[in-house]
Amino acid sequence: IFINVNGDRWRIIVSDKPNLYSRNRQTGIGALLGKAKDSDSGSTFSMPSVVEGTLEFELRVVKASDINKLCTLSVYNSRSYKNLTRAAVSDILPSIKLQKRNAIPAVGALVGDKIEVLAGGRRMYSVGLIPEAEFYILIAKDVSEQDKKFLANTSDTYNQPSILDVGYKVIEIQEMMKREDGSPYALREIADMLDVSLGKAQESATFARYPDYLLAGFPGLRFVSYKWLRKMKAYSDRFDEHKSEIIETYSGDDELIEMQDAEKYSMNLQKRIEKIFKPIIQPSPKLQDWKDKSLPTGIKAAINGNDLTLKVSVDKVAPETLEVIESLLK
Q1: β partners of residue 9
Q2: Is it the case that residue 30 has pLDDT exceeding 90?
Q3: Is 66 in contact with 60 (CB distance < 8 Å)?
Q4: Which residue of 48, 237, 295, 301 is surrounded by the most CB atoms within 10 Å?
Q5: Is the separation of the CB atoms in 122 and 79 below 8 Å?
Q6: Collapsing DSSP states into helix, strand and coil, what is residue 218?
């Protein structure tokens, strides 16, 4: 059925089939991964397609040394594979290193002689860091685009892609992919591919276009907060002006960044960079005298910019002094 909404032509699909998206979220892919994690290479599994029929999967093993040659992350997966770091996979890397494999299989589709990894980008990256490890992945043939999108957006939920991941993927699609007629995809189409709102696609792409040197000091995209990225928009026209100062805020020690708490480091780095753009407020001359002022016992003065804060310790201040302070505050 086609209807017109504000001049746009919308296609409405009406079906008496059960909601396979909902059913698969609850029993399909979750149940399939649960069975596959304890199975051997070559084991086969099936689940309902979101279109029609059944998807048939086979559990396969790819050596770490063959990952870059055989595997590629799907366009439907909104993770930015090229921006992954050790710190970004620090929650799963130890177990993969210990077991020499990923415990939960990834999910992919066979396209020609390549494996399109729909879910499991972080697992694939982690296995690739360990030469003797193996990448376990469930692979299906003849997978529809609708099924690819569904699998990519329902199987990779342990650690959701960050806002920057989405932004880099939006830009990648804009620059690298074209329709069959050679025309570029509209942003609304890209948002639909990644299963995000148009607003999120727009905003994330804006963040991903920040200069590399602004984000290069972070141990991973997942550690850059959305709130901080929004704050930085106000200073975007001054980034280049402060490039050298921004670079100086980095630790400069990759090993140290991996060993310490990456989240704490990133929070401090965000504050250091933000401080570069905030003007330094010189205290009013009227407040300068307070630095050397002799105050009664139990009263301390603190100056921050043009703010004067008096701290009164009630148990140390004379009663008559408290009475004077109270009368002034009335």
Answers
A1: 4
A2: no
A3: no
A4: 48
A5: yes
A6: coil
Nearest partner of 109 among 70, 145, 140, 71, judged by Cα: 140
Phi, psi for 14 (deg, rounded to 5) = -110, 130
Supply 322's token pair.
């408290």
CB contact set of 148 (below 8 Å; sequence gap of 6+): 74, 76, 109, 116, 118
Residue 128 has a pLDDT of 97
Q: CB atoms < 10 A from the CB of 242, how many?
A: 16
Q: What's the pLDDT score for residue 195? A: 87
Count of residues in the chain: 330
Nearest to 201 by CA among 236, 230, 163, 160: 163
| CA separation, residue 132 to residues 68, 117, 129 (Å) | 15, 20, 9
Q: Left (φ > 0), alpha (ψ -120 to 50) or beta: where does 317 sit?
A: beta
Tokens of 316: 């140390």
Question: Which residue type occupies 225?
Answer: S
Tracing tokens 């905030």 back to the chain, one arrives at: 278
Q: Looking up tokens 């703010």, which residue turns up? A: 307
DSSP state of 13: -
Half-sphere exposure of 247 (CA within 13 A, CB side): 8
Nearest residue to 50 (alpha-carbon basis) of 27, 24, 75, 77: 24
pLDDT of 256 strictly over 90:
no
Average pLDDT of the chain?
Answer: 84
CA distance 78 to 119: 10
- 190-220 per-position pLDDT tens digit: 999 898 999 999 999 999 999 999 999 999 9
144-174 pLDDT, tens per residue? 999 999 998 877 666 788 999 999 999 999 9
